[in-house]
Amino acid sequence: xxxxxxxxxxxxxxxxxxxxxxxxxxxxxxxxxxxxxxxxxxxxxxxxxxxxxxxxxxxxxxxxxxxxxxxxxxxxxxxxxxxxxxxxxxxxxxxxxxxxxxxxxxxxxxxxxxxxxxxxxxxxxxxxxxxxxxxxxxxxxxxxxxxxxxxxxxxx
Length: 156
Fold this sequence. Notes:
Elements: H1 19-33, E1 43-44, E2 49-50, E3 62-70, E4 83-86, E5 89-91, H2 96-105, H3 109-113, E6 116-121, H4 127-140, E7 145-147, E8 150-151
Parallel strand pairs: 2-8, 3-6, 6-7
Antiparallel strand pairs: 1-3, 3-4, 4-5
């Protein structure tokens, strides 16, 4: 019988020279593609469904207006009354005009001309509230209004 010798094979070490480049590339990629939310909704809303939807082109000229039930930091509904949130504050219908003027003053000249108000209203919101908001926006000179909705799945 012959003898077999077991040789100890060494595992070659990993070359980690490119690891920092890879980490910074992935970090840079996520920084570029991640959209940071500007406004935190303080109302609970569930947008209606639509079939003909378009995406907003310019994010810098959009003012978000939320209509729904007020919620606390944990997302619990505080009351059944309908509240209006413009940017980060609760407003009444009468205050919408001054808030739109303040938002316009903070924009560049190009963004001011392309101002769009995006209404994200709860599907159970009464149409009278939405009409009052539309009238206040009309008086404030904000004539480009965008209604947010979810994409409706078409029946086959």
